[in-house]
Fold these 3 entries.
Entry 1:
Amino acid sequence: MNRQEWNRLGKVFADEVCDIVREETSDEMKRYVAAAKLPKDATLVDFGCGVGTFIHRFGAKFKTIVGVEFAASAIAQAKVLCANRRDVRWMTADIVRAAKEIGRVADLTVCLNVITSTSRAKRAALWQSLADTTKRGGHTLIVVPSLESEAMVQAIVNRGKKLKLAAKDGHVVREEATQKFFEKAELRAVLAEAGFTLKKLGRAHYPWTIEGERETASRAANRPWDWVCLAQRN
């Protein structure tokens, strides 16, 4: 997706994109941020910060904040949402270039539903950017789409009929766009390869309405989810 397309998306971000900080139903973000045991003078780097929901909710825990987003239109909304935070450095840039400029300064690097490219090379560059920005002993908080959740959703929606899931290498088509979804075991391996030790891995559930489905009482007990993980830089 080019910058012009990202800017168009940024203008309708709140309506068109599942913002896991806003949508998740089990308050996992709060627990995972707490598990990072941040120092009092902590630095946050939020890669793919969108309209700033993570910074708005958790920014008070950090002395220094850098929010990186490719879409200038999303950054403009983030500045409004986080208007009370005058200490945020906003960068309209791609993550790989931003990481080189920022350097290894983060006590917590956040990257929520950003590493979804079907290109192995592009994903590898993003994982490397997380490693390059996170201090040794610091943490990264990552959310990625779950392939196991996608299979569960399709099994319920199709009611036992033949599934349409054809996820070679975890590639799933969503609204004419193909994204990379991750299996639980795969996440452990890719984090280790990137130089991180996995500390906490779980599910960030979100409403069925995000999947375009009605949320019944029975479905509410078995909501779809993204993988959320906290890992420490080696």
Entry 2:
Amino acid sequence: MIRFVNEDCTMTAQISFDQSLFDICPTGMLALDQDTSILWLNPALERMLDLSGNELIGKDKNTLPVELHALFDETDVLHLSLNGSGERWLQRHVSATEDGENKPLSVHFYQDISSQVLSMQENDQLRQRVEELTITDELTGLANHRATLQYLSIQVTRSRRYGNPLTLGAVRISDPNDQDHPLPDSTILTFSHYLRERLRWADSIGRYEEGLFLLVMPETSQDDAINLLRQIHQECLNGALEELGKTFIPEIDIAAAAWEKGDDPQKLIRRTLQSLRT
């Protein structure tokens, strides 16, 4: 006979159950005595733990392997690492009761939530992947509009704090016959590869718009940035984009503006783009 006690201890009820009911119960069950030794567990919990009752009954936290110590922790969700069976996550509810001799018992009820936890972990990984994609331009693999603004904001904050030089460069490529005509993906991709290989590791390149690339160049003066952009322009005219063949070389416009006190990222971008030839 087991006597269950309500949480408010206002009443008790004596109910007699046949052992077979516990054996067929799909919920894992575990009984601990007042010394927190395992008195009994049902087959459902044996399956969850991939262990037999004989391996657990009569044992406590000090006599069980460390991977099973979570059975004695006072948490709602248990994380168990079982040899040969991988990981398990069990949700637990604990009830106070007494045995037939009026000795206190702690009865633990378990639901296996491993599949739900694994699904949540997979969702977190997918969410992280989506976040990575949202800061990466799908075509070129460069930083996209959002990521470029984020990185520029970091560098502007750094320049405000330490007074370090910072220059924002802009390179726009367009159809020489029609600037409003979208460029082929192959042209944008070839040019992005060239920029990635040409610039320093400290510089950040972002595809800000269709054919517009912004170059965030820390520790760089405006004169040095303009000289670099002019070299890039000349190299493109001299065949750096030979993958495109001689039939179509995009028109290239360049500009650069140094960070000044009072500039926020948007203001620096506006000053840079105003210098581009329209």
Entry 3:
Amino acid sequence: VKQSLEQGHTVTAFVRNPAKLNITHSNLILFKGDVMILSSMEKAMQNQEAVICCLGAPATKAGKLRSIGTGNIIKAMEKNGVSRLICQSSLGFGDSEVVLNKAPFITRKIIIPFFLGKTFEEHQIQENLIKQSNLNWTIIRPVNMTNKEFTGNYKHGFLYTDRSLKFKISKADVADFLISQLSSKEYQYKTTGVSY
């Protein structure tokens, strides 16, 4: 949200709890709602030009937030004539599973099978819903995200077999790449990883 505002965008932040978003700006509109409720999403979608979707939940509470929430986003976009969707997913499942061959042992043998399995299933459903929609979509798949600072120096569009990839990237750099897709046609109707 901060980066979008700094770049001159008018932002509608759809949040469960506006008090948790400690930002004020003349170009920021806070919309309190629940992505699991379609009518709530439809109201927020009025007069929008594009959507950046970053739905998430703790790995131990994956639930159906990504699948149901993304389905509601798609329906609300189609109803309101909003066509551009940029969605943050995750690297490490589906056709990007091969990237995990280089992951640390603990990631491959413990974290993914015991903690991230349900999350990856939700991401797969989420991506399928997006690809089956009539929207102009881009899916961004970051590796493990950290709270480190923005660098502006990261990779995207790489082969998932690239052995030079790191298994981390800052949330700030992921945000930068998500926002850049608002004005880029490079990854329309495509998925791409993003990593260092």
